[in-house]
Specification:
The chain is an all-alpha fold and about 200 residues long. Helix content is about 70%, strand content about 0%.
């Protein structure tokens, strides 16, 4: 599940013995949100010309390091040096991604996340401190990703997106049985946008 309080509270109440696994996508997404918040905060301190320059570079910071085109890598490197908080937040985002790529088991993961949180709390970046607190509060569910063999709800979310696409295409359904029939046909339907 994602890391929203409503989900985990509901599960804890109705399934007290269930082990919660927080999807890694949502952990990284939350970190990207924190990084973007740092970028906006830093941007608000700049003059209007610098603001426009930094605003146009939003997606460089949100991209995964290996996906950044070579010509943008120099820009990212210069910005990280010029804006310390932004550089730190980007480095912590990439380090968090590295934990998901490298850690072999729950034990290694637990150590890596504790180290990540400790270092994040020592920075002067408030968004990193709140991210560290969130990770510490939800560490059991985050580490469960390794305990249960990298289980993810990505396929379910993808199928839910197909259902939303189907409903949008039909502008809604009045006949629930017909909707169920169309949902069963979804695996054979290509849900890409029409030209």
């Amino acid at each position: 599940m994602d890391m929203a309080n409503a989900y985990s509270t509901w599960f804890a109440e109705h399934f007290p013995h269930a082990q919660i696994v927080f999807d890694h996508f949502h952990v990284i997404k939350l970190m990207n949100d924190k990084l973007d918040h740092v970028r906006r905060r830093v941007m608000n301190k700049l003059d209007s010309v610098q603001q426009k320059q930094l605003k146009g570079l939003r997606f460089i910071f949100l991209k995964n390091e290996e996906d950044i085109p070579e010509n943008n890598q120099n820009i990212l490197h210069n910005l990280r040096g010029k804006f310390q908080e932004l550089g730190d937040a980007y480095m912590f985002k990439e380090t968090l991604r590295t934990i998901y790529r490298v850690a072999q088991d729950a034990y290694q993961t637990n150590i890596a996340f504790h180290r990540w949180c400790k270092l994040a709390e020592e920075t002067l970046v408030p968004e990193l401190k709140t991210m560290a607190k969130t990770i510490r509060d939800r560490l059991d569910g985050i580490v469960s990703y390794w305990t249960f063999g990298h289980v993810s709800n990505a396929s379910m979310e993808g199928f839910n997106n197909k259902i939303r696409w189907l409903i949008r295409q039909a502008y809604g359904f009045r006949d629930i049985e017909y909707l169920k029939l169309k949902i069963h046909q979804l695996p054979q339907i290509n849900c890409e946008k029409s030209p």
